[in-house]
Design a protein that fits this description.
- The structure is a single chain.
- This protein has a 7-stranded mixed sheet with strand order 3-2-1-4-5-7-6, with helices on both faces.
- The protein has a single domain, classed as Vaccinia Virus protein VP39 (Rossmann fold).
- The chain is globular.
- β4, α5 and β5 form a beta-alpha-beta unit.
- It is of the alpha/beta class.
- Bound molecules: S-adenosylmethionine (SAM).
């Protein structure tokens, strides 16, 4: 089994506590569910979508509802907050907009200039993890 390409630092859940507290959160590309465990500290419900079958199985064995599908192949499930840290984050955001999905959309960290420029054009709130360069970009759908 291929090793996952990266995971959000768990402390990011503390950074966004006020946004996710008692809310339903969907991790778009949840991998093996490590970050879902951190989100679960504050959220009323955490669900994930992951198209890698092996990783989705690991995440669901942690007790989470995981939809094992490509995010682009169906309408996003209802949630209050969507967290997305993967290579197609902007495409997923645009899909959510196009479908009329409502909620808060949080982009995980990126150093990719073109994506960063697009994210900045959305007029996001930016939060930085203390003692780190990790940033999240928060916007409304
Ligand atoms: C960088 S990992 C992030 C894992 C976790 N969300 C976190 O923040 O720690 C990105 C995950 O998104 C998944 N992914 C990427 N594109 C996807 C798509 N179109 N549909 C479903 N999952 C996708 C990848 O398989 C990978 O597990």
């Amino acid at each position: 089994m291929k090793v996952i390409e990266g995971e959000t630092p768990l402390a990011v859940a503390d950074l966004i506590e006020d946004i996710i507290k008692d809310k339903k959160v969907c991790d778009l590309g949840c991998g093996v569910g490590t970050f879902m465990t951190a989100l679960d500290k504050y959220s009323s419900e955490v669900i994930g979508i992951e198209d890698n079958y092996d990783w989705a199985m690991i995440a669901s064995k942690k007790g989470f509802r995981v939809i094992t599908e490509n995010i682009f192949s169906f309408s996003l499930p209802e949630a209050d907050v969507y967290y997305c840290w993967n290579l197609c984050a902007m495409g997923i955001y645009l899909k959510a907009k196009w479908e009329g999905t409502k909620g808060t959309f949080i982009f995980g960290h990126t150093v990719r200039k073109p994506l960063l420029n697009l994210i900045n054009s959305l007029d996001c709130e930016v939060r930085t993890l203390p003692n780190s360069d990790w940033k999240v970009y928060i916007t409304q759908l």
